[in-house]
Amino acid sequence: MKKSTRRACRFSFRVVTFLLCLAVLVTLFQIPSRIFQKEDVLESYIARSFSVILGRDATIEDLRFWYQNLQKGNASAVSMIDNLMEGSEFEKRELSLDQKLDIVYESMLGRPADENGKEYWLRYLNGGVSKALLVHTIANTQEFKSFCSGYSVKPGDVSITEERDLDPNMTLLVSKLSRTVLGKNLDNMELNSWIANLGNNEVGLSTLMLDILKRKEFVEKGYSREETVRILFESMLEREPSEQELTEYIDILEHGVSMEYVLDQISKLPEYQMKWVTQGVSTGNITLTQPRDLHYELTGFIARFYEKLSGHVATEEELNDGIGKILSGDLKITDMLTSVLESPESQETLASNEDFVNAVYEVLYGTVPDADLAEGYRIGLDHGITRAKVLKEIMKAPSFNEKMTELGVPVTTEKVIPEKVIALTFDDGPYTPVTFRILDALKPYDGHATFFVVGNRVDPYSECVIRAVNQDCEIGNHTWNHTTLTKISGDSVAKQINDCDSAVYNLAGVHTKVMRPVGGSYNNTVANNVGRPMIIWSVDTNDWKYRDSNHVINEILNNVRDGDIILMHDIYETTAAAVEYVVPELIERGYTLVTLSELAEYKGIDLKAGEAYFSIRG
Q: Greater confidence, 15 or 294?
C-alpha cells in the first residue's frame, strides 16, 4: 500500500474515533436531562427546594435520589421538605424562627408569607406549636396542591399526633403559663404533658399549679410570699391581685397555712372557674391534706400564740403535728399553749409581765383584760407566780371554751367527777420547813390542798404562798393574826379577814375565796361579816395536840370518806411526816386530793358567804 493511502486511513480512523468519543460524551451529558424528563419540572422542583431550604445547589446524587423517589411515588413534596428541614445541615444554618417560617412558605407555595400569615404563625410557633402543624396546614390548602401540580409532584402531608399541635390555643396558654410561673419555655415532652393534664378533669389547672409550686426549680427561685401570690394571680386569673386581696392572702400565709391553701382559695373563685371553662380548660380540684390547711382558723390562732408569746414562728411541722393531736384528742390545747410559754424565747419576747398579760388576752380573745384581773395577774407574776399558772387561770374562764368551740376544738364542758374526793386543809401557816414538805408530797400525784394562812405570816413566808399557788393549791383566809372572831365586833371581824386577804392579794394577786374561823368558832356576827363561806372540818387530826405522826396517820386513814374536809396544821414537822405517808396511801385507795373550791365544784355545791361547811358530800 502506498504511503499516502496509509496516512489517509489513519486520519479517517482518528476522525471516526473522535466522533465516537464525542457522541459518548454528548450522550453522558444528556443522561440527567433524560432522567428528569417532563420538561425538567421535577428536576426544577428538587433544585429550588435545595436552594430555598439548604441555601445551596443540589448535587447530581441529590437530584438522582429525590427524582427517582418522587417519580415513583415513594416520596412527596411534604416528605422531602420535612426531611431537608429536619436534617443537621439545615440546623447548622442557625436561622431565626422568622426565617424558617419564610422558608416553609417559599418551599411549599413559592412565595413569602403575607404579614397576617407571618404574625399568626409566629405567635403559635413561639408558643410551642411545632413546625409540623404549619406544614400540615399549608399542605391542605388548594394553593399548595396547585403549586405541586405545576411541578408534577405529589403534595403529601404530615400526621399531627403531638398534644401541642392538636390544640394550638391550649399550647399558647400552657407556654404563657410556664413562662409566668417558671420563667422559661417547656421542652416538647413537658409541653405535651401539661397540655394533656389541662384537658383532664381529674388533674386540670389547679392540680398542675400545685405540682409546679412543689417543683425544685420553682422552690429554688426563692420567691417571697407576695411574689408567689402575684404569680398565682397572673397565672390563674391573668391579672394582678388587688391590694386588698394581696394583703388578705399574705396575712393568711403569715399565720401558718401553706401556699396550697391560697391556691385552693383562688381555685374556688367564680372568676377562676368561668375563665377557664369557657376556654375548654379543666380547672381541676385541690385536695388539702395538711391539718394546718384544713383548720385555717385554728392554725391562725396557734400561729399567733407562738409569735406573740414567744417570738417564734411556728414551723409547718409544729402546726401540723399540734393541730392533728389537738383535734384527735391526743393533746390538750391548754397543754400546748402552756408549753409555748415555758420556752426560753417567751421570757425574751415579752420582758414585762404587763405585756405578757395583754398579749395573752389579745391572742385568746382579741381584747384587753379587765383592769382588776390584769392588776392581780401582774402582782402575782411580779412575785413569782409563773406565766403558765396565769395562763391556766385565764383559760378557766367560760369565754375560753367558747373561743375553742369557734375554732372547732373539742372542749369538755363537763368535768369528769372522780369516784372519791377529799380536801386536805392546813391552818396557821405558812411555815417553810413544813409547808414545803407538804407541797413536795403532793406534787408527784398532782394533789391539791387548801392552806388557810394567817395574814401576818404571809410576807415572812411568801415563798410558801407563791409555790402553793403555782402548784394549783388554794389559799384560804385564817384571819390577820389568828384572832378568835367570836370575841370581837363585826367591824373587827371584817378587818381581820380583809387584812389577811390584802396580804395574800398583794403577794400572789389572788383573793381568798374561803375562810376558816380560828378554832372553828363562829356566831351570827362572824357569819355576817366574813364575806366568805366558813369552812370547818369533818376529820380533826388533833395534830396540834399530840404532835405525833402516827396519830395523824391513823386519824385520817381510819376515818376518811368521800367528801371529807380534813384538818391539819402546816407548822409541825410531825404533820409533814404524816402527810408524806398518807398522800400516796390515799391515792392508792382511790381518793383524789382537791382544794375546797374544787371539792364544792365536783359535788355541785354553790358555797355561800357566811355559811358553815363541815363536809361537802353533795
A: 294
- d(C-alpha 418, C-alpha 45), whole Å: 102
Q: Does domain 36-160 have CATH number 1.10.3130.20?
A: yes
User: What span, in angstroms and rounded, lies between the C-alpha atoms of 345 and 129?
Assistant: 57
Global pTM reads: 0.70
CA 119/CA 289 separation, integer angstroms:
46
* Interval 149-204: pLDDT, tens: 999 999 999 999 999 999 888 888 888 888 888 888 888 998 888 888 877 766 78
Report the alpha-carbon distance of residue 170 to residue 528 in Å, rounded. 87
Which grid coordinates belong to 613?
Answer: 361547811
Residue with cell 401558718: 256
pLDDT digits (tens, 9 = 90+) for 531-547: 999 999 999 999 999 99
**Grid cell of 530 as nine digits:** 366574813
| C-alpha grid cell, residue 441 | 408530797
Q: Are 514 and 611 in contact (CB under 8 A)?
A: no
Residues labelled catalytic: 427, 569
The dotted CATH code for 165-286 is 1.10.3130.20
What secondary structure letter does DSSP report for 383? T
Which residues are bridge partners to 450 per DSSP? 425, 474
DSSP states of 187-210: PHHHHHHHHHHHT-TTTHHHHHHH
Own/partner contacts of 40-49, CB < 8 Å, gap of 24 or more, are 41/150, 41/151, 41/152, 42/67, 42/70, 42/71, 42/151, 42/152, 42/153, 43/67, 44/151, 45/70, 45/77, 45/151, 45/152, 45/153, 46/70, 46/80, 48/107, 49/80, 49/81, 49/84, 49/107
Annotated domain spans of the chain: 1-35, 36-160, 165-286, 293-406, 420-613
CA-CA distance, 617 to 602, in Å (whole number)? 9
* Alpha carbon distance 618, 615 (integer Å): 9
